[in-house]
Amino acid sequence: MRAHVCSDAAVPGGNEDAAGILGDVAVMLDGAGVPPRFRAGCHHSVAWYSHQLAGRLLLRAQDPAVGLDAALAAAIGEVRSLHEDQCELERGGPSATVIAVRQRADVLEHLVLCDSSLLLTGADGAVRRLTDPRVDQVVARERGAEAIEAQRNRPGGFWVARHEEEAAAQALTGSTPLAQLERVQLVSDGVTRAVELLGLHDDASLAAELAEDPSAVITRIRAAERDLPTGRRPRKVHDDATVVTVELGSR
């Protein structure tokens, strides 16, 4: 697997994204920057959680006989065991979105949980984006942070990696023949802001420019975030931005 990572923290030294490549597996996790009151039962940071989970998922996914969802469930359980004795997780703990891909035989397997995205560039140059729409659906129908948070990891709500192993079974999974792919990119929503929030790209142009120079893409995102008028600025003016690019084609 030919792959590389580019990541830029919104706040220097405080990157809550986590990404890694090991063997034929690549993962990207975006730590959920929810208000502290929604993770009041745990004293660990969001960055601690996303990095702990990313490392364990990479290891668990090395066995091709284990599905990516099963590997994620086991990794969630392992991280839970690190702090359930010292934290009151039923009162809320840190969480993260998850994207994972694994090259196996003649296919690329994928797992997508919550609102990070997987950009698949086909051998014909067409770009397909996979993301989990459920959190956006909840935000569209609920009013207020408390109402949205009440739908986290609930049937009919949205799912994210936290301390509940059953969340892994709710991930979107599938596979694509390698012959149909040129590359894939695992991106946090700090990168896809370039499409939805900032209007700098569509999915196809974003994938193409990330393949050429991901650092330049993120630099342009940062400038556009600073230029947003006050009324259009999100709660976090800047967000951690991470992309893992996996080259699969002949070039």
The largest pleated sheet is described as: 5 strands, antiparallel
Radius of gyration: 17 Å
Poorly predicted regions are none
How are the strands ordered across the major sheet?
A: 1-10-9-6-7
DSSP strand (E) fraction?
25-35%
User: What is the number of beta strands?
Assistant: 10
Mean pLDDT: 95
Helix count, per DSSP? 7
Shape: globular
**Amount of helix:** 25-40%
Overview of the molecule:
The protein has 251 residues and is of the alpha+beta class. The chain has seven helices and ten strands. It has a five-stranded antiparallel sheet with strand order 1-10-9-6-7. Strands 2-3-4-5-8 form a five-stranded antiparallel sheet, with helices on one face. Strand 4 (96-104) and strand 5 form a beta hairpin. Helix 1 (46-60) packs across helix 2 (68-83). The two termini are 13 Å apart.
Structure at a glance:
The protein has 251 residues and is α+β, with helices and mostly antiparallel strands. It is built from 7 helices and 10 strands.
Features:
alpha+beta, 7 helices, five-stranded antiparallel sheet, 251 residues, 10 strands
Task: Describe how the helices and strands are arranged.
Blueprint: E1 2-8, E2 17-22, E3 25-31, H1 46-60, H2 68-83, E4 96-104, E5 107-113, E6 117-122, E7 127-131, H3 134-141, H4 145-149, E8 172-177, E9 181-187, H5 189-196, H6 203-212, H7 214-227, E10 241-247
Antiparallel strand pairs: 1-10, 2-3, 3-4, 4-5, 5-8, 6-7, 6-9, 9-10
